[in-house]
Design a protein that fits this description.
It is a single chain. The longest helix is centred in the C-terminal third of the chain and has 18 residues. 34% of the residues are buried. This protein starts with a helix and ends with a helix. With 205 residues, it is of the alpha+beta class.
Length: 205
């Protein structure tokens, strides 16, 4: 593992152990830290020419929180703000946590030259309305649930909930660690089911 990636992962607190574990497990020679500070880990050319299993975005700075409130008039729950200070969004296979893209909140335009995290503001103004839920819930991310459906992650009264589009609550967590531990494990299992056999066999050599 490169020193740059080690430094990035070592800065994450113990709540993020499930993500760090995946990064270490699948680190390969193409894994790197981009110029903007984001980590790209586990290149997967069988998915797309430039695809990584993990995209981890560096901590959100204070000015981004201020800009978010200015743009949306929405308050980020303390639980999620604590998470964003450590990791400003991520993709781990089909699992994603939304964040505050730096370019969007500083220039008003999204930098499309690299993969960026999904925008927390757009999620809470627009995307969450596809779920049959109390609109006061704060939408933070999601993962693949089936071939035709994604579940959403929401915060309510300092708890994290996973919810289907029908409004069915699948699970509730009290801590970030418990949440990540459960959902990253499912996302890894889903990912492994889609890896071609010849690639899996090469891992065993």
């Amino acid at each position: 593992m490169t020193e740059e990636v080690k430094i990035f992962l070592n800065k994450l607190n113990s709540d993020f152990f499930p993500i760090v574990e995946q990064a270490k497990k699948y680190f390969d020679k193409d894994s790197k830290i981009r110029e903007d500070g984001a980590a790209e880990i586990f290149r997967r050319p069988w998915v797309a020419p430039v695809n990584y299993g993990l995209w981890l975005f560096p901590p959100a700075v204070t000015k981004l929180f201020d800009k978010f409130v200015e743009r949306t008039n929405i308050t980020i729950p303390k639980l999620y703000k604590t998470l964003l200070i450590e990791l400003n969004g991520c993709f781990v296979y089909s699992f994603s946590l939304y964040g505050l893209p730096t370019s969007l909140y500083t220039t008003g335009l999204l930098d499309r030259s690299n993969i960026q995290q999904f925008d927390l503001g757009t999620a809470n103004r627009n995307w969450k309305h596809q779920y049959n839920i109390d609109t006061n819930l704060f939408y933070i991310g999601g993962r693949s649930y089936s071939h035709s459906e994604n579940i959403g992650y929401f915060i309510k009264e300092n708890k994290i909930l996973s919810i289907r589009k029908s409004g069915e609550i699948l699970k509730t967590w009290d801590t970030i660690l418990e949440f990540l531990n459960d959902e990253i494990a499912i996302s890894e299992k889903q990912m492994l089911e889609k890896v071609p056999d010849d690639i899996k066999n090469s891992w065993k050599v």
